[in-house]
Amino acid sequence: MRKLLIGLLFLICLNDYAQNTLISGMDKLKWEKIMPGVWKASFGTSGLNPLAYSNPPKKESITELSDAPFPFTKESTFSQLTPERASIRIPLGPFEKIYGLGLEFKGLNRRGGVYTLKVDHYGGVKGYTHAPVPFYVSSKGYGVLINTSKRVKIYVGVGNRKDSKRPDPIDRTTGKNWSAQPLSDAVEASIQGNGLELYVFTGNTTLEVIQRYNLFCGGGILPPKWGLGFWHRMHTKSSTDDVLQEISDFKKHNFPLDVLGLEPGWQSFAYPCSFDWDSTRFPNPEKFVKTLRNNGIKVNLWENPYVAPNSTMFKEIKPFTGSHTVWLGEVPDYTIPEAQKVLLNHHQKNHLDIGVSGYKFDEVDGYDTWLWPDHATFPSGNAAVEIRQIYGQMIQKILGDHLKKQNKRTYGLVRASYIGASSSPFVIYSDHYDHRDYVTALVNSSLSGLLWTPEIRSARSAEEWVRRFQTVCFSPLMQLNAWASGAKPWSFPEVTDIVRDNIKLRMDLLPYLYTAFYNYNQKGIPPFRAMILESGYNATETLIGGKLNGETNPYEEQKRMEVTDQYMMGSSILVAPVFTGETERKVVLPSGNWYDFYTGALVGNGETITIKTKLEQIPLFVKDGGIIPMLASKEGKGSDKPSLEVRHYGTKENIFQLYNDDGESFNYENGNFSLLELKVTKGKNGKLKGQSKIINNKNYSYGKVNWLWMSNQTKNGK
Ligand code: GAL
Fold first, then answer.
1. Mind listing the domains of the chain with CATH numbers?
2. Ligand 1 binding pocket mutation candidate from 232, 236, 302 (most atoms within 8 A of CB)
3. What is the 3-state secondary structure (H, E, C) of 139-158?
4. The whole model's pTM is what?
């Protein structure tokens, strides 16, 4: 009897204990299909909604993608609420690879890692980056978005629960396959909070999953044409005269200049910022911007969000600022619409009305030692941690929408981004300056709806100068950022011609690249993408620590690293940048024939080749049937209908729909754009023939089309 009573008492205590410590056990997530290939689940309550700072889904384009089934059994996804945290568990198969989670400078496969996704300067903790995005995509063809503005801590195939179907433990002394990280069957993630919202995206391929995520966030951005030209940033102390001198130097050296960026010193006060022109360096901003406009040059202004007491917007913004300062400047709470109005009114009057084209938003990321603390308070009542997480994305949305109302496209730079960035007209950059890491970041950004620029600042040798220039020419934003070094494109005279030729090649590729961005906009296909998104790509040679034998030993699979130093640009060009000191490099070619861009020669098919590098060229390869429309005339500027050189590679028939529009307004959204169909067919004699046909609106079509048959080296003027 006594034993029974003690037992009962024990059970009561246990029950009490459970009730006090757990709000709920593991609950099954309830998924609701909201669009073809998109499911949503939520539990508890969430805070600031990041998707509110993205564009609405492009439903029609989402519907055009294949409607693949829900990727898990509905009983296998879980949520849990404890007094401290909201967590989820999503199944993970033994051979799955996981990609994404935002901008990263190292590696591609996230399996086997633990990430604390926090908007921050890069470095230190895994997941602390300029654009951590709680969205991952699996090699099995689905993606998961954890839609929260709180910091997500995610265990990607790390950790083994007691109730998981885990293998038997292996004795470390005698077992060959012992691993410090036994294979786990789940992705588990949590936030400090009391609820979460989740989305699952499917598709027939990994690329389709990415497309669906991008389309869900409003599609990709179509930059104004000038944004794809050459950008140059001036030294921070530059004056009007310095800028005018720079422009004439660019002309003298025969370098294009499309956007000129002014760094902090254009303002009367910086760090914190006045956002007002400095009257000594820029006494007549209106005239200054006009002069540049007359030279075909746009002005881009650097700023950080922290308001200096001497700013002309200080008094008005003050009621909407948080408890703490940054560099003693006040921090606006832009989740409040009135605060947004103050910023927009000021910027409209002082910058946009006189023709400034856009901004470089700096310091919206971190460090903790600079920005506001987690316990800061803001007048909206929104949590400081959440405001920090979405600040960069929010500012992009506010400015982008504002200019859209004026039917103007913008393109700018930002140092922090988050969920839903694909439709934002901004490109991420960093102070981190490692060439290889920059290319890895370019590759990774395509897996999270981001654009990244491997901007060039300086170099220790002429060779490095060329190699970095080549990478930046094959990126979403071609920029020399000389705010500190004062470098010019001709700073290394021995390679000036090479640099100029590489920039010219990028400029000539504008028709092809602009169409790639249109496909980003309409179909969500990243214009610069990781090789894993390319069909026929399979790199088994890149496993660290031996040959991949995933079938018999799945432990090996999580060690697989993917290629991070080559990527796709547009529909058919493979870019393989070269790093200083390399005289040869490996290139992994997906299946199908691939051709050298410069010579049209066949280089391989579904294999890893080793190529000898040339300083003058960034290695570029084109897939069989690749049609590459390029500007034939100088830059196509000035003339209404520039003529085209259309290159064809290999032996396959193909069709390329070449997109064009006015290059700066949103009129394309109402059908005001041209499509030129470039079609290659094979005649009875096996000879290739090219035809071009306007299939939508001739207003923005091109002039003469000159076909170039790269793989048999004969010109045929039709
Ligand atoms: C840095 C930024 C640089 C440059 C500099 C100017 O924070 O990353 O690109 O703009 O500020 O002070």
1. 23-167+176-216 (2.60.40.1760), 225-415+468-496 (3.20.20.80), 532-623 (2.60.40.1180), 627-709 (2.60.40.1180)
2. 302
3. CCCEEEEECCCCCEEEEECC
4. 0.94
